[in-house]
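Journal club prep — side note

Before the paper discussion, L.F. wants everyone to see what a predicted structure for a comparable chain looks like in token form. Sequence:
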Amino acid sequence: MSDKTALKLWLQLAKTSALLQSEITARLRTHYGQSMARFDVLSQLARTDGKRLGVSALSRMLIASSGNISRLLDRMEKEGLLERSPAPRDRRSIMIGLTPAGADLFTRMAKDHECWVGEILAAMSKADQQELLETLTSLQRVMSAKPE
């Protein structure tokens, strides 16, 4: 009989991740009318310090599954959260950047997001949180270095 620890670990990670994402998504919708995918887009654009990203680069950076990124970006542009412009060197490519309204919304959401994550994880001791962080960081490092 084989050891099922790795399979059990994967299942626990998947379930826990889904629970965390579901709770944060519910809070983003309740307080801001936004999805996790929208928060993720705003977050990635906010990290560029005012620079713009190409759609494919943005898509690769997203944590949450974006589904149809073009449709999501269309809606966010219509709401004034981001703007598109042609790439300077290749006018066929589109660059995405935050508008002031998008940056403001992200700043407000990020503050609440940090508090919510703290509230949710408060049931774990700081030592357990640190140990889990180190273990998951190690796992990510190993998986990133491993050829597929």
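L.F.'s comment for the group: Residues 37 and 65 are 7 Å apart (CA to CA). Keep this in mind when we get to the figures.
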